[in-house]
Amino acid sequence: MGSATALVELGDRYWALGLPAAAKSALVRALAQTDDPEPALRLADLALAQGDAASARSFATEAAKRAPGPATKILLGRAQLAAGELAAARMSFGAALDAPKATAWDRARAHLELSRAAAAQGDPSGAAAQAGAAFEAAITAASQAVSAASLTLLEEIAAALISHGRQADAMASLETARDSLGRRMCAAALLAARHAAGDATVGEAELDAALATIEEEGGATSGITLRRLERRTRKPSTAEREALLGELDALIHASAGEDLPAIDRARMWFLYGALCADDLATRDRAEEAYRKGLAFQPGHTAAACRLALLVLDRGDQAGALAEIERALRIDASHGMAWRNAARMLDAQSPSLGVIVGRLLDAANPGAGSAAGSVAPRLVTATAEVVRHDVIAGVYAHGHRVKNLLGIIGARTRSARKLAAEGDVHDRLKDLEADVTALYEEWAQYLRSMQAPTPTVERVPLPPLLHEVVLAAQARIQHVPIAVDTAAALPDVHGDRMLLREALLNIVSNAAEACASLTSAPPSGGAARAGEAGTCGSGGEVAVRVRAVAAPGASTAPLVEIVVADTGPGIARAHLGRLFVPGFTTKETGSGVGLAIAERVVSAHHGRITLESEEGRGTTITITLPTDKSSLASLPMWASERGAP
Asked: 12 φ, ψ to 5°?
């Protein structure tokens, strides 16, 4: 493996596997061992794909010294264009056009790059003219030979033509061209560009037919196969998805030794990732595929955003934040990147300022330090305003639904009383029961949206907790619920009935979670049982209450109520939504219990936090003040809501 040729081959293999750092290392070693231009050419291409304009320009300059010619002049021009050196880039592309050894594909590429340079300089007419010239050259070149790289170039030229409004000229050029495989490829590329641009006159069937004709006429390259697979993956069934994954996997391995453009290798991996993301069983493969695709095309913002969502869905908030930062660094104007960023913001989180600062720095370096202290307040206020507005709207319309359910229930009851005993009477009775249950559930859901106003009184917690546990135990009798109250516990100030409802919802949820277990949890559950009791066949619940010191100078203690269970735990992806009204992880749950509990605790100027781990259980901690003078100094506790 010591020879330069072997090192170049090794670099190509690393690059095909999506390992750019290893590929660069091998190619740099090859560059030092030979005067051949190949290592420099590949290093320049790799740097361009990675968005490293400075390195690309350096390696392209070296390649142009070692092998002066149109191809290296175009490569140098592309690097200069990426670095913002527009005048130098145009000179390099012009020199490539004038080179006596320039091929038709060289001229097509040079014209396309001149079109991009003109667009960068604010010359739309010049950009359009150069795009038209590129298509004319591509028609000539395609009639001679088409490779995977030239197929990608064709698509780029067609997209440039459409964006500059030169579709009619392109169609006229195709009409006068010879009927050949190359002409059909140009026509297919133009069709695909029109379809991508939203041209309603171009249908899926027309595109599929164009690609099928090319394959039949001998154009079945990896590039064409990839494009046909892309078209087949619009809305596949489960069986079709498995078949497509198999074909795509075979294509990835078969094309490993081909001179396939980095952008096509990225397309393969992105397509593979999209297919795997549709099935929970293959989500991990989707993440890996997107990462490999981004190694070939790091500037693909949409792929970076999809990867961020996958990471966020499995509950890895730190990893998701890193991917969102990557997307914002690529394109700070991308809407999906900012929507993903918004998903990271929890107005109740003590780390909100840090997260906002990192996001701002990713989009605009330095902005985080300038706005990091102010932006979290704006985010918090915006979240509260939006939440209030949405809840107010749903609450207003929800009352109309509740009233309608009440009318339906009353009329069903009247009809049942009028009906004679028999099948109709029984069906009306069942309908009445269903409507009544739905009415009560909906009424409870609406109550979860109201911010309760407590009737303040002194509430001794030990008798209240014993009452709550007895009520929960009566509901789920086979799950042990233990209570541990500290001695000399101070009373809290609040509304006894609201606190009872909130605590009963939490304790009952914990017992129901334990009741869903049919066997002991995996090892590790015993350590958690030190808090919640030894796990039996259905798990156990432990309720503990104690006084804790208040922050600051307040002498009045706080009361901490901990409800811990050894149930199945909650998936990380669901933790951030557990306090949202209507969200539930149970098949028959209403999704209002925790929402009501949070609003009751907030109305008492307290804090509620949740920790959970799948297979080990869930712990909810409520902290309440015992003296109104200490309410204003309550901090946002270190344990984030919804954080593991």
From this structure: -65, -40
